[in-house]
Specification:
There is one protein chain. The protein has a six-stranded mixed β-sheet with strand order 6-5-7-8-3-9, sandwiched between helices. A four-stranded antiparallel β-sheet has the order 2-1-10-4, with helices on one face. It has one domain. The chain is α+β, with helices and mostly antiparallel strands. Strand 1 and strand 2 form a beta hairpin.
Length: about 280
C-alpha cells in the first residue's frame, strides 16, 4: 500500500486494507436498542456474495479468447450493480463531499464527526438514491479488459473511478453524468468497464459481457491506474511495491502536465478504453 498523503509504502494483509472500525456505526439504531453495526454487517455479507461472483468471472476471463462473452445471470448483475453503487457511496470521499455541500448551504456551520457520520449513513440507507445508482450501473454495457503486461492494475481505498466519454478527465462523482463510464479494477490483470448505452458507447453493444479484443500496453495500464491515484482518498494498493508512476501522477493532479496532446479518436468498440495518460485525466 502507498500512502499518498505521506508518500510512504508498506505491506498490509487484505483484511487490513482501507478498514476503519465503526465508520458506518449507526448511532440512531444504538439509541433505539438495536445493533449499531447493522450496516457494516450488511456490507460484509454483500462483499461475500460479490467475491464468489467475481471470483468465477476472473477464472473465466483468464481463460477465454478476446471477444468471447461470459455468463452473467440477471441476479448476479443486480448484486454486483448494488455493490458498485454502494462502494461509490460508502467511501470517506463521499462523506466529505456530502458534508461539504451541507456546510456550504448551511451558512458555513461546521458539522461534527457524529453529524457527518449520521448524514452519510442516512444517505447509504436511502433506498431511492441507492436504487437510482444501482439501476444506472445495471443498465450499462459491461466490458472486461485483460492485462497481460508486467504492469499490474492498481486499486485504492476509493476504487470506483469515473471517466468522461472522451477519456479526458477523471471525476470524483460522475456516475450519473451523460457519457461518463465506470472503471473498476477487479484484479491486477482484470478491469471492468461500465459504459452507458448512449453516444458514443452504443457502438460497443455487441461487446456487452465480453472480454475486450483490445490488448493492453503498459502505457494503457498506467492510464487506467491514474484513475485510482486520482480517486484514492489516501491509499493506493498494488501487488508490487512499485509506486513510481503513482507518485509522478499524484504530483500532476491539478496541473496540465498530462494535458491532451493529440485528438481523441471516436471509438468503434471497446477501444474507447485505450486512452494513454497524456489525455489529461489529471483534472477533476
Amino acid at each position: 500500500m502507498w500512502d499518498k498523503t505521506k508518500d510512504s509504502s508498506f505491506l498490509s494483509s487484505p483484511s487490513g486494507v482501507a478498514a476503519e472500525t465503526g465508520f458506518y456505526r449507526m448511532t440512531d439504531l444504538a439509541e433505539e436498542g438495536h445493533d449499531p453495526l447493522t450496516m457494516e454487517k450488511q456490507f460484509s455479507a454483500l462483499e461475500g456474495e460479490v467475491s464468489l461472483i467475481t471470483g468465477q468471472w476472473l477464472n473465466w476471463l483468464r481463460e477465454i479468447d478476446p471477444g468471447e462473452k461470459i455468463h452473467v445471470p440477471k441476479d448476479n448483475r443486480e448484486i454486483v450493480s448494488l455493490y458498485i453503487a454502494l462502494q461509490f457511496l460508502r467511501t470517506a470521499d463521499s462523506r466529505d463531499i456530502i458534508s461539504a455541500l451541507i456546510e456550504e448551504f448551511g451558512e458555513g456551520k461546521r458539522l461534527s464527526e457524529e453529524e457527518r457520520r449520521r448524514l452519510h449513513t442516512t444517505l447509504l440507507w436511502d433506498e431511492k438514491t441507492v436504487k437510482l445508482i444501482t439501476d444506472r450501473v445495471r443498465d450499462t454495457l459491461w466490458i472486461f479488459g485483460r492485462n497481460s503486461t508486467s504492469t499490474p492494475f492498481l486499486t485504492s481505498d476509493n476504487p470506483v473511478a469515473f471517466r468522461t466519454f472522451d477519456n479526458a478527465k477523471w471525476l470524483k462523482a460522475g456516475i450519473l453524468s451523460s457519457g461518463t463510464y465506470v472503471v473498476f479494477p477487479l484484479a491486477p490483470d482484470i478491469v471492468m468497464y461500465c459504459h452507458p448505452e448512449e453516444p458514443p458507447w452504443e457502438k460497443a453493444a455487441n461487446f456487452n459481457d465480453c472480454l475486450s479484443p483490445v490488448p493492453f500496453s503498459p502505457e494503457m495500464v498506467e492510464s487506467e491506474n491514474s484513475g485510482q491515484v486520482f480517486m484514492a482518498t489516501r491509499f493506493v494498493i498494488s501487488q508490487t511495491n512499485d509506486f513510481n508512476f503513482a507518485r509522478e501522477f499524484a504530483r500532476s493532479i491539478g496541473t496540465d502536465l498530462y494535458a491532451r496532446k493529440r485528438p481523441v479518436v471516436e471509438p468503434n468498440a471497446p477501444s474507447a478504453n485505450t486512452a494513454a495518460p497524456d489525455r489529461n485525466p489529471s483534472k477533476p
